[in-house]
């Protein structure tokens, strides 16, 4: 085999291997969140018979277990809120009135799953271009699955908790990179009794 053919062989081999590798990296697998009864969580509270727990996905391992991607690399922390309504009342939870108070007094507000997905998508598409058209198409398909999955997991703007039911939804927060503000921070959640229209602020120490 002459030198030119040998160089061409190795070029084709490494290009093909790169595309296969990057295409594999661009895949997305839907993961189920492990939702348990509120009493099984360490971070929980109860108000007016409504039990609420907060399950934080604030480490790389746990983030991947629920979202298949380490969103913490981008400074994002998903928190799954679990509700158990053991009363005869209906409650309403407002996502835009949920806040995260850091240990230094900084207040963080929820960001949409679309914002998080767009951020992660930019990284995946960049890798996709390196692998060529096949890897790019794989990355684009993975992004669609990722966006759909995260949107389904996300807490809607107004979540109704019916009597005698259990519900859950994820709230995403954008935090400063390299910090662990969840340690010693707290969540503030606004709920409304739909029968009496009485609103109550609920706090959960994380």
What does this structure look like?
This protein is of the alpha+beta class and 206 residues long. The chain has one domain (3-27, 43-205): Immunoglobulins (Immunoglobulin-like), CATH 2.60.40.10. 34% of the residues lie in helices and 29% in strands. The chain has four helices and eleven strands; from the N terminus they run H-E-E-H-E-E-E-E-E-H-H-E-E-E-E. It has helices at 3-25, 60-67, 113-131, 133-153, and strands at 44-47, 50-56, 76-85, 91-94, 99-101, 107-108, 110-111, 158-161, 166-174, 186-193, 199-205. Strands 4, 5, 6, 8, 10 and 11 form a six-stranded antiparallel beta sheet that branches. Strand 5 and strand 6 form a beta hairpin. It is globular and about 50 Å long. The N and C termini lie far apart (65 Å). Residues 5-25 and 125-134 have low confidence and may be disordered.
State the secondary-structure class.
Answer: alpha+beta
CA-based gyration radius: 22 Å
In CATH, the homologous superfamily goes by the name Immunoglobulins
Mean pLDDT across the residues is 83
Please estimate the helix content.
Answer: 25-40%
Number of helices: 4
- What CATH calls the topology is Immunoglobulin-like
Q: Beta-strand percentage?
A: 25-35%
Q: Report the end-to-end length measured between terminal Cα atoms.
A: 65 Å
Q: Which CATH-level-2 architecture?
A: Sandwich
- Per the principal axes of the C-alpha atoms, what is the gross shape? globular
- CATH class placement: Mainly Beta
């Amino acid at each position: 085999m002459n030198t030119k053919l040998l160089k061409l062989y190795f070029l084709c081999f490494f290009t093909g291997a790169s595309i296969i590798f990057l295409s594999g990296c661009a895949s997305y697998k839907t993961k189920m969140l492990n939702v348990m009864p509120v009493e099984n969580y360490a971070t929980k509270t109860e108000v007016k018979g409504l039990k609420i727990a907060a399950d934080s996905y604030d480490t790389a391992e746990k983030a991947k277990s629920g979202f298949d991607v380490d969103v913490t690399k981008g400074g994002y922390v998903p928190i799954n809120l679990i509700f158990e309504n053991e009363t005869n009342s209906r409650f309403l939870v407002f996502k835009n009135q949920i806040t995260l108070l850091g240990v230094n007094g900084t207040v963080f507000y929820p960001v949409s799953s679309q914002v998080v997905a767009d951020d992660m998508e930019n990284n995946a598409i960049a890798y996709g271009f390196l692998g060529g058209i096949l890897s790019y198409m794989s990355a684009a398909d993975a992004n669609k699955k990722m966006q759909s999955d995260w949107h389904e997991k996300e807490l809607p703007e107004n979540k109704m908790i019916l009597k005698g039911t259990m519900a859950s939804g994820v709230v995403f927060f954008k935090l400063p990179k390299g910090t662990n503000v969840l340690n010693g921070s707290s969540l503030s959640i606004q709920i409304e009794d739909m029968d009496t229209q009485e609103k109550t602020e609920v706090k959960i120490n994380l």
